[in-house]
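Running low. Got one?
___
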Amino acid sequence: MYIPHYYKNENLDEVKGFIKQNSFGILINQVDGKPWATHIPLELEKDENGKDVLVGHMAKANPQWNNFQDSPEVLCIFNGPHAYVSSSWYREEEVPTWNYIAVHVYGKILILNEAETMASLHRLVDNYEQGSKNPVSLEKMSPKTLRQVKGVVGFRIQISDIQAAYKLSQTRTEDHAKIISELSQKDDASSQAIADHMANNKK
């Protein structure tokens, strides 16, 4: 991913936190010589050696997984908030732009066996059920229901590189206060989130 140096975020702890909070990502590889993308949860975990990995699953009906062995190098994209920035908020004339946060993770994908896939599904459900009023648990589901795991393919991605773009008007510090104020007044959550990130980035 092309990232001008002033937009590059090299704070890995912050970037990993972003991945965990925005874990519904896009998995991309090659299928029959063409780019193929699937939108799925991709959970950031540690492997048995303490290294960062992404863990996920997809339907066996999805032809993408059939290419994992022949084309194991994959790209995972995690999108965050984004917002249009009007140049009417600038002190000097300039073209409008767009602020955003995006993270690209590169790595090698490995297919999990059924037991490993089931364990990953238990962790996934337990994690996201924590805030539920009536949390469900795979532990309490019948073997008949859990047989659905046979219809999915689990995988783990050994991470080789993480690239993070945090475009937050870093080159327009003189206009920051105005941009933050204008975005904060927008009625969409994404604009307000960018305003919050800009404000926190100054601290």
Remarks:
- The CA atoms of residues 59 and 148 lie 10 Å apart.
- The longest helix spans residues 114-128.
- The helical segments are 12-21, 114-128, 143-146, 176-184, 189-201.
- DSSP finds five helices and seven strands in the chain.
